[in-house]
Amino acid sequence: MISFLSVSIIQATVAIATPLFIGALGGLFNERVGIVNVGLDGIMLSGAFAAAITSYYTQSAWIGVLAALMVGALLGLLHAAICVGLKADHVVSGVAINILASSLTVFLLQLLFNNKGQSPSAPKIGQISNAGSIPILGPIINNMSYLTIIGLLLILLSHFFLYHTKMGLRLRSVGENPYAAQSLGIPVRKYMYLSVIVGCALAGLAGSFLSIGILNVFTKDMTAGRGYIALAAMIFGRWTPFGSLGASVFFGYVLAWQMNAQGLTIPAQIVEIIPYLATLLVLAFVAKRARGPAHDGKTFAPGEH
């Protein structure tokens, strides 16, 4: 039998939830200005690749993290240019990014290392050590990645920015009604571009955790759909930083339980679908009552309004 709330389960939950809540935060910054981004999975995959490869060549994990942020920001610029500049369909752009990332990372692995499966081992981000003696929280935070701490700080900063600053209020108003925001003198397109770029940079950061936070290597398609689960967490969390964090912890717990259930006398196929089944059930029951930004997914064309 497995425990439903052991220290190992809690530690695994935190580790698995980290790329989910950072990725969900990235999706939130996209959708708060009305831009849907189903390409989070591809951006996370690209960030994971950039982090591992840069870390390998520079022998510095933190430079790898910076590379993941930069690659994410570049893909964000691409997505913003397509959706805002060219007024193209948001979903088509996101799907194209996912396909591009999956194909290009395999091609570059073959080109650089003559291996389509994985990269060589690279330095990984450090962890909190010797914290086990701290009462209550010690066993939980012991061996916690520094990227998890950074992610939690980003949640706090994002909440403060969105709900306690004038710029955050303007950003949210763009996602609700960009035409009204523009009439008040807010540079709507600028906010859209910047918010999408920042959000995609965060998705790249989430990817770096997968390759050099948990592991020390990049493997083909290693996100395994986590970008889509991050989107589900964002919706479940009602497009808020703390809500996205809570939803990510829930999904992280489901995934952690799935990993620990591998030894049970349950068909492996049933165990493997549990996280995705949980995602579908949550969306089915929550999406009906969840209301995102009013202009989410719509084209902004001020001359046509």
Question: Could you describe the 3D structure shown?
Answer:
By secondary structure, this protein is an all-alpha fold. 69% of the residues lie in helices and 0% in strands. The protein has one domain: ABC transporter involved in vitamin B12 uptake, BtuC (Orthogonal Bundle), CATH 1.10.3470. It has 12 helices and no strands. The longest helix is centred in the middle third of the chain and has 27 residues, at 188-214. It is globular, with a radius of gyration of 19 Å. It starts with 6 loop residues before the first helix and ends in a 19-residue tail after the last helix.
Number of domains: 1
The CATH topology is ABC transporter involved in vitamin B12 uptake, BtuC
Instruction: Report the mean per-residue pLDDT as an integer.
Output: 90
Low-confidence stretches: none
Radius of gyration: 19 Å
CATH architecture: Orthogonal Bundle
Helix content class:
55-70%
Strand content: under 5%
The major sheet is characterized as: none
What is the oligomer described by this structure?
single chain
Query: How far apart lie the N and C ends?
Result: 61 Å
